[in-house]
Specification:
Layout (H helix, E strand, L loop, with lengths): L4 E7 L8 E8 L18 H8 L1
Antiparallel strand pairs: 1-2
Length: 54
């Protein structure tokens, strides 16, 4: 049975930690032809950091 939802932290805008929202209702993407779905257990990138800083 495929998993329909995943958990994650959603960035909701500029600012501090109050702009990070933990969610458990994020739909799992369905890969298209020629694509793969990769399970990631933890990640952060510069775009997320720069968006929070403003």
């Amino acid at each position: 049975m495929p998993i329909e939802h995943m958990a994650g932290v959603q960035l909701t805008g500029h600012g501090g930690i109050e702009k990070l929202e933990y969610r458990t209702d994020i739909p799992v993407p369905i890969p298209g032809e020629g694509e793969v779905l990769i399970r990631v257990t933890a990640a952060i990138n510069n775009t997320d950091i720069n968006t929070r800083i403003g």
